[in-house]
Specification:
The complex is a heterodimer. By secondary structure, chain A is α/β, with parallel strands linked by helices. Chain A is 33% helix and 16% strand. In chain A, helix 4 crosses helix 10. Chain B has a five-stranded mixed beta sheet, with no helix packed on it. The chains are: A alpha/beta, B mainly beta.
């Protein structure tokens, strides 16, 4: 990543002092965060904590894409929104919260829905993408678009008491489609409303996604490329499962057949692992 | 033979196929579950013919959505 000519005010140095003191970040890493642009797709259970922590960390530009409005039932886990924001577009509600937390961050709110027709344009200019969506149509769309546009992204999913995440970096590991070839049919998966999800689980997984973005931007540590981190909140059990690449992957494999993003009409929440 | 399933060591008979393991482990909706065997994915059509050996590591990977709605 090219070093941007970035400077900090005394207030910023104080605000970010706990980051800067970290050996793995330092002034250099903080400059990279400030020069960094992260697109968060979905200001929900995952996107809420991720956006707040990335804003707090001093990421220069945060894109927030969400076509929905805040609903009372969202507030059990979508902590970027407040009761007073019910009925407000989530992208705008999130922007207000980020501005209140850290006015140094430039927020680009996108109130529309990302689709095959607009996603490549929406990704332009961003260094890292965070998938905080709740349906497989969006997850496959984000995967395919990021592979096509050579954008690294963090994938995550949550259901009930379980969550998982992985990070795709172009040329360095499997993509989401290597693991799951195509979206499941609608009847195969319960909706979020039917399945339920515990709020703090969304916080855990969303924060791990924020960490992936911070590590990618600063170069600190190791990313979850080539591995899937799973978390079982009931058992308090984290596991890191190694993920191979699939040479025949239609998105990132040797003979790619997905050369443009595609829309799928599959709203869904997840297939329950045993004990979820 | 001893194999590892989802991180846990388990005892199964020699030559067990991946499909048999899926049934014995009571994997729900296996048609939508990805199977990773050591360092590769097992294609859905290959589970009956793919047999397991001592020391193999099998992971079942489940679709998870959630997050926003």
């Amino acid at each position: 990543m090219a070093e941007a000519p970035v400077t900090f005010s005394p207030a910023e140095l104080e605000r970010y002092s706990r980051n800067i003191i970290l050996r793995e970040i330092g002034a250099k890493g903080q400059k990279r965060l400030k020069a960094g642009k992260v697109l968060i797709v979905g200001a929900g259970g995952l996107g809420s904590p991720a956006a707040l922590y990335l804003a707090a960390a001093g990421v220069g530009v945060l894109g927030i894409a969400d076509g929905d409005s805040v609903d009372l039932s969202n507030l059990q886990r979508q902590v970027i929104h407040a009761t007073s924001g019910v009925g407000t577009p989530k992208a705008l509600s999130a922007r207000e919260a980020i501005r209140a937390l850290n006015p140094e961050v430039e927020v680009r709110a996108f109130e529309g829905r990302l689709a095959a027709s607009n996603i490549l344009e929406a990704l332009e200019g961003y260094d890292f993408v965070l998938d905080g969506t709740d349906n497989f149509a969006a997850k496959f769309l984000i995967n395919d678009a990021c592979v096509i546009a050579s954008k690294p992204f963090s994938h995550a999913g949550i259901i009930r008491w379980q969550g998982q995440l992985m990070t795709y970096v172009p040329g360095r590991g499997p993509c989401y489609r290597c693991v799951f070839r195509q979206p499941p049919p609608p009847e195969a998966v319960p909706t979020c409303r039917e399945a339920g999800v515990i709020g703090a689980l969304a916080g855990v997984i969303g924060c791990l996604q924020a960490l992936e973005a911070v590590k990618y931007l600063t170069g600190a540590g190791e990313l979850l490329t080539g591995s899937l981190l799973t978390y079982d909140a009931l058992k308090s059990d984290f596991r890191k499962v190694r993920l191979p690449r699939r040479p025949s992957c239609p998105a990132c494999g040797e003979e790619r057949t997905i050369l443009a993003p595609e829309d799928y009409g599959i709203p869904a929440c997840g297939i329950a692992p045993p004990g979820a | 033979m001893e194999i590892t399933v989802g991180g846990l060591k388990k005892e199964y008979r020699e030559g067990l196929s991946v499909a048999e393991l899926i049934r014995l482990e009571k994997v729900e909706t296996p048609e939508y579950v990805t199977v990773a065997l050591n360092d590769e994915f097992v294609e859905g059509g290959d589970t009956e013919t793919r047999s397991l050996k001592e020391g193999d590591s099998v992971e079942f990977l489940y679709f998870m959505g959630g997050g926003r709605g």
